[in-house]
Amino acid sequence: MAASGSLKSASLLHFELEVRKSQQPATTRPSACLQTAMTAPPPTFLVYFEWQS
Length: 53
Description:
77% helix
């Protein structure tokens, strides 16, 4: 269970970095960055996120 949580956190962190590079680098808050991503998530990530969950 602990390993699963760590993997999930790593996935979200990696996604956060990808979003910062691909969208608005000015966004420094992880919550705001993630919220922006959830507003219009890439189809590939959406499937990946569902699979991780």
